[in-house]
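Forwarding the complex inputs:
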Amino acid sequence: QVQLVESGGGVVKPGRSLRLSCAASGFTFSSYAMHWVRQTPGKGLEWVAVISYDGNNKYYADSVKGRFTISRDNSKSALYLQMNSLRAEDTAVYYCARDPYYYDSTYYFDYWGQGTLVTVSS
Amino acid sequence: EIVMTQSPATLSVSPGERATLSCRASQSVSSNLAWYQQRPGLAPRLLIYGASTRATGIPARFSGSGSATEFTLTISSLQSEDFAVYYCQQYNNWPRITFGQGTRLQIK
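Prediction (whole assembly, two chains):
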């Protein structure tokens, strides 16, 4: 069965960095685009970034562009989110999520991880 | 940015009854609309995509309809496990996809 397990969340001071990881199993990771989506009580669900199945194409929400970097290692079935220059408004639960189509990106999500909490606070 | 507005914010329905949730887009999203269910403490779960296609393993009591700017999620006979928060999401305007703010379905 498809499993996505995030890790790397925690408490970090504003301006610092954090790297999230997502370990995938139960499917051919290298065939699917992958996303990061975050959720806060105030702003609800917000899409953060996507990476194509081969890692060649990446897109970001305007709110994180230039600060966050999505990457993947298909040999390890792993997805990453490098978050730099963190702000209080980046505080959220971060989910990795699978795009449902082979070798394409549709921008909806058929499987989600359990999420990892990132808290940005001084 | 396409704004997705869900109504009502909270819906109270008795088990066994029908629930109707609405989602409106600020401009047309064609049929590029998904619905998710989120139970407390869990990740969202895909219910519907393409406005009306049930995702794998989703019971037939869940149905979606609509196109362009007006969409509806109907749960025909509410079970205890259906009381949760429901979100709509447009993916027509990728990568600037957006979610609604959610409808909380609670037991009456």
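The CA atoms of residues 18 and 76 of chain B lie 5 Å apart.
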